[in-house]
Write a structure and sequence with these properties.
It contains six helices and two strands; from the N terminus they run H-H-H-H-E-E-H-H. By secondary structure, it is mostly helical. Strand 1 and strand 2 form a beta hairpin.
Length: 159
């Protein structure tokens, strides 16, 4: 027997129909922008891996997989081209000299900064005609929506 959350609403509610449609359009357009612009020269997976290493320092594959909510084999596959390109390096784990951690290299840091600046500029251009309070509200709501998706996924994985 399945139960619905007390917060669940009728799937025919027009706002939810529009929301799912707008999310599909958003995903498609993000892919179009990424593939047609220098902003997208680093794919989403690589961007998130490099960002995680920059923000939190060297980590082993398992820690990265846990942080990004993906399988360890996925991280291994995604990080291989980053290592080959010299954007990520392998360093010895100070706690266990037999273990290896992945670390952002200086070229990786430069590439991440370059891509981040390009993406930030694109975001600025896309909302340039929005009032600042709407820009902040959109960012806050998008962050909240991402958190809801993260919580939903975590809840499904632990069930």
């Amino acid at each position: 027997m399945t139960t619905t959350s007390p917060q669940a609403t009728d799937r025919t509610d027009p706002v939810h129909i529009q929301l799912q449609y707008q999310l599909a359009v958003f995903a498609r357009r993000m892919e179009q922008v990424r593939s047609s612009d220098a902003v997208g020269a680093l794919d989403r997976a690589a961007y998130l891996l490099l960002d995680r290493l920059e923000r939190h320092g060297p980590a082993n594959v398992k820690a990265l997989a846990d942080a990004l909510a993906v399988d360890s084999s996925t991280v291994t596959r995604q990080v291989a081209p980053l290592v080959a390109a010299g954007l990520v390096g392998r360093v010895q784990d100070p706690a266990d000299r037999r273990a290896v951690r992945l670390a952002l290299t200086p070229p990786g840091g430069h590439r991440l900064a370059e891509v981040r600046a390009g993406r930030s500029e694109l975001a600025r251009r896309l909302v340039a005609d929005w009032p600042p309070e709407e820009q902040r509200a959109f960012c806050a709501l998008l962050a909240r929506f991402n958190h809801s998706m993260e919580s939903y996924t975590a809840g499904r994985q632990s069930a």
